[in-house]
Amino acid sequence: MEPQGTRLDPWIDAYAQRTQGLTASQVRALFAVASRPEVVSLAGGMPYVSALPLDALADTVAQLVRDRGAQALQYGSGQGDVTLREQILDVMAPVGVRAHPDDIVVTAGSQMALDLVVRVFCDPGDVVLVEAPTYVTALGVFSSYQCQVVHVPMDGEGMRADALREAIAALRAQGRTPKLIYTIPSFHNPAGVTQGSQRRAEVLEVARSTGILLLEDDPYGLLGFDGEVPRAIRADEADGVVYLGTFSKTIAAGLRIGWAVAPHGVREKLVLANETATLCPSNFAQLTISSYLATQPWFEQVKVFREVYRERRDALLESLESLMPPGTTWTVPAGGFYSWVTLPAGLDATAMLPRAVAALVAYVPGTGFYAPGAGGEHELRLSYCYPEPDRIREGVRRLAGVIETEVELAATFGSPTSAPVRSGPTAPTPDLA
Amino acid sequence: MTSDLGGRVVVLAGGLSPERDVSIRSGRRVAEALRGHGVSVDTLDVDGSLLAALAEDRPSCVVPLLHGAAGEDGALRGVLDALGLPYVGSRPSACRSTFDKPVASAAVRAAGVAAPESVVLAATTFRELGAGPVLAAIESSLGLPLMVKPTRGGSSLGASVVRSAAELPAAMMAAFAYGDIVVIERYVAGTEVAVSVLDDGDEPRALPVVEIAPDGGFYDYGARYTAGATEFFVPARLPADVLAACAQAAVTAHSVLGLRHWSRSDLIVDAEGRPWFLEANVAPGMTETSTYPQALAAAGLELGAVTLGLVRRALAE
Ligand SMILES: Nc1ncnc2c1ncn2[C@@H]1O[C@H](COP(=O)(O)OP(=O)(O)O)[C@@H](O)[C@H]1O
Ligand SMILES: [Mg+2]
């Protein structure tokens, strides 16, 4: 008799192909430690919601339930509340997006909008062009729809238009046409860089001339530190761009409300897909945001957030400047939540993470922002959005010690350190160039 | 039914080690199993508020399910001793020598169980002597492939198989990221087994031998905690005499290391049917994919009943 083995999961042979990447990992294990208060976590991108006027929000919610509870607690439309969609137009005015409320689909965070766009456009094997590096959970979406991800190099101004054009040509030469160009033009996650207006125009021109849909993800657009709001690509092209926005960074991530602005045909499909996925985005959360926008000085609050994050960005950059060992470089973000750090030659950010966590500081290793095997080994993302400035300084101090130890080890074990040593703030970093 | 315990049982889980998540899962499972027997159980993390919480509502007994340092090196159990709190599992000094893999291997080897030849080195040694010559010397004496791992670790964190000399530096870096001392040992090819030992009667006894067959070949973190990534056979697909030798090796390890109540030894059986001792664990994993609960089930035992029995034993000792 053949002995029977067990895999402890009777459904193991039943799972869909798309679940293949979902495995336990050492990095996740280490993040579990990073959630302890002793650890300075420069890893997660949690907005600092404590800066919100919580009392005012409490009143808003109480009044909403009292006055319009029966509506707020009922199913809503698959496209989203019409009043909120009108208000979203005001929220997008600073980035220059002009549209009709009917062009907007409200979703459970812009993550859901991203999921719906990929669902609507991509069959398994379809190619998606993304920045190198790119937003980790966008990669998760592409992978769950079994897309092939092709990274386009960046420089200090984000996605390189020439490289984008070359990548498309190379794919076309193989008989493949990408379905989407996914870009985060403002205050990039994780790279911390921003496309200037010239660059945006060039990227848009590539999309137009190749006939590929541009998916513009803009969660941080209003969070620039010098007060200037970068003009969205969608502001100059309505038919070839799907624009994603969110209230997660300007109001509250926990409400899970984002949106897509899409051309007519795409939008119809997104509404149907949204209904299939969730019936409707939370009506309660939508009406809460709608009341908040109507009764609170929401743009003043955005300015408060900018100040909070600018102070933290400064704390990060100052301490990187004074503490990082030679050979370390980083990007200087003009807004948003992140700086992208390149380690001295020979260091591997994933391999170094346990040492960092033992020293009570956490970051996200760069490989998470690339398709498997596509890069990021020597890079890491630092978030400054959540910890207080003093904690950020302490975290960088710990991280500097960790990198120094690791540099010594790498020297001992003869890792290749022949590359010219560069240090300090930079755009582009060697790997982004 | 369990009022004789004279107070709640505290399961300790979490901590700051890289195995925090594993420990939380082990703790949850054991706590639930105890509750199934009517035991009042609280699960506490190890942090600045632990001692106050223990003092405020003194438990009858503690079940430490912390993996990694502090939990397994005896430090925390020393504190429990100082507080006069009974606990399930081994005493601090036994934990100390067991958690240090080379120390444990030496003791178990002296008791007649095979353990792979190894070299134990600190990062400073490499720095002083030069990594190249030291690694070359190790490679020529132990041969390839080699196993590199931190001396004090768990869940294969920082452990890697080295099949060519070119892979050695990266393996060393990975292991040193988890600790200052690293063991490089001969890689034993064969069938990996885990042998659980339970001491709930007159003598420690081995539970059915669990064979571990990871899809990727290496029982690494992903293979351990991704449900379905590893196939287990209980009992292992080995001849009866080999199974008996594995059981004997684990009981010997449990005894010479002075372990108490429960332990698990990790072994590899080579082509000749000889079991090689890799390490022993004083806080065996109790997660949904861990081997100890599988061994208990194969022996017709239930985790809650067994843990409760050990709680009673701890109270009586
Ligand atoms: N000498 C060795 N030969 C072959 N495989 C080994 C050897 N040492 C360890 N391994 C493998 O590495 C895994 C982890 O090693 P182990 O010594 O059990 O440490 P830990 O479980 O504490 O991380 C084992 O489960 C086994 O798969
Ligand atoms: Mg082991």
Please describe what this structure looks like:
The complex is a heterodimer of chains A (433) and B (317). Chain A is α/β, with parallel strands linked by helices. The C terminus of chain A is likely disordered. Chain A contains 13 helices and 15 strands. In chain A, helix 4 packs across helix 9 and helix 11 runs parallel beside helix 13. Chain A is globular. In chain A, the strands form 3 sheets. Chain A has an 8-stranded mixed beta sheet with strand order 2-9-8-7-6-3-4-5, sandwiched between helices. In chain A, strands 13-14-11-10-15 form a 5-stranded mixed beta sheet. Chain A has 2 domains: 147 residues, Aspartate Aminotransferase, domain 1 (Alpha-Beta Complex), CATH 3.90.1150.10; 242 residues, 3-Layer(aba) Sandwich (Aspartate Aminotransferase, domain 2). By secondary structure, chain B is an alpha+beta fold. Chain B has 3 domains: 81 residues, Rossmann fold; 148 residues, D-amino Acid Aminotransferase, Chain A, domain 1; 69 residues, 2-Layer Sandwich (Dna Ligase, domain 1). In chain B, a hairpin with a 6-residue loop joins strand 8 and strand 9. In chain B, helix 1 crosses helix 12. The chains are: A alpha/beta (433), B alpha+beta (317).
Secondary structure: elements and pairs:
The complex is a heterodimer of chains A (433) and B (317).
Chain A (H helix, E strand, L loop, with lengths): L25 H9 L5 E2 L12 H19 L9 H11 L11 E4 L1 H13 L5 E6 L3 H9 L3 E8 L2 E2 L1 H13 L6 E4 L13 H14 L2 E5 L23 E6 L1 H5 L5 E4 L2 H15 L4 H13 L2 H26 L5 E2 L7 E5 L6 H10 L2 E2 L1 E2 L13 E5 L5 H24 L11 E2 L8
Parallel strand pairs in A: 1-12, 3-4, 3-6, 6-7, 7-8, 10-15
Antiparallel strand pairs in A: 2-9, 4-5, 8-9, 10-11, 11-14, 13-14
Helix pairs in contact in A: 1-12, 2-10, 4-5, 4-9, 6-7, 11-13
Chain B lengths: L8 E4 L7 H16 L5 E4 L5 H7 L4 E4 L10 H9 L8 H8 L1 H10 L7 E5 H7 L1 H12 L3 E5 L9 E3 L5 H9 L4 E6 L4 E8 L6 E2 L3 E5 L6 H5 L4 E4 L6 H17 L5 E8 L5 E7 L9 H8 L4 H14 L1
Parallel strand pairs in B: 1-2, 1-3
Antiparallel strand pairs in B: 4-7, 5-6, 5-7, 8-9, 8-10, 8-12, 10-11, 12-13
Helix pairs in contact in B: 1-12, 6-7
The structure holds adenosine-5'-diphosphate and magnesium ion.
